[in-house]
Amino acid sequence: MSNAKTREFVPVRIAVLTVSDSRTLADDRSGDVLVERLTGAGHSLADRAIVTDDVKKIAARLRDWIADPEVDAVISTGGTGLTGRDVTVEAHKSVYEKEIEGFAVAFHMISWEKIRTSTIQSRACAGVAGGTYLFALPGSPGACRDGWDGILVHQLDYRHMPCNFVEIMPRLEEHRRRT
């Protein structure tokens, strides 16, 4: 395996989903943060959407992107809290083939440094389905910055060592191939 200094950057095609009953593209600050961060890092915005806090609508949007060969990863923002309308996590988990438990752990470690015990009110999560990475972040711009700057900017960069999500992308669906 070559070292990080000799690896070429590999842009990832990322869709951004905002889950909200009240936001529009004009006032979606959290979605804007994610788009700014991912494009600033050299990745491409594959698509962007806003859906209401409804498990079926969220899961349907995720499934559409999972089926789209032009989408490598989805980052959602919003709906990860504890209130009755916070159903993003349930929607995400309903489509996961594998959950990435360490994502929540890493997010809480980063969040702890900033908001201490209030981090327990977040249910940030991640998983993989159909060869597509799915990440669910809280709905605040600060939480989106923390999730991107602390985790995703590194794990979605092929040059990040000792390992990253990009280098295993070709193997995410190897279980579907016949031997």
Q: What does it look like?
A:
The protein has helices at 29-40, 55-67, 88-95, 101-115, 141-155, 165-168, and strands at 13-19, 44-51, 73-77, 98-99, 125-129, 132-137. The chain has 179 residues and is α/β, with parallel strands linked by helices. It has one domain: Molybdenum Cofactor Biosythetic Enzyme, Chain A (3-Layer(aba) Sandwich). Strands 2-1-3-6-5-4 form a 6-stranded mixed β-sheet, with helices on both faces. Helix 1 runs parallel beside helix 5 (141-155), helix 2 (55-67) crosses helix 3 and helix 4 packs across helix 5. The radius of gyration is 16 Å and the shape is globular. The mean pLDDT is 95.
Which helices and strands, and how do they pair?
Elements: E1 13-19, H1 29-40, E2 44-51, H2 55-67, E3 73-77, H3 88-95, E4 98-99, H4 101-115, E5 125-129, E6 132-137, H5 141-155, H6 165-168
Parallel strand pairs: 1-2, 1-3, 3-6
Antiparallel strand pairs: 4-5, 5-6
Helix pairs in contact: 1-5, 2-3, 4-5
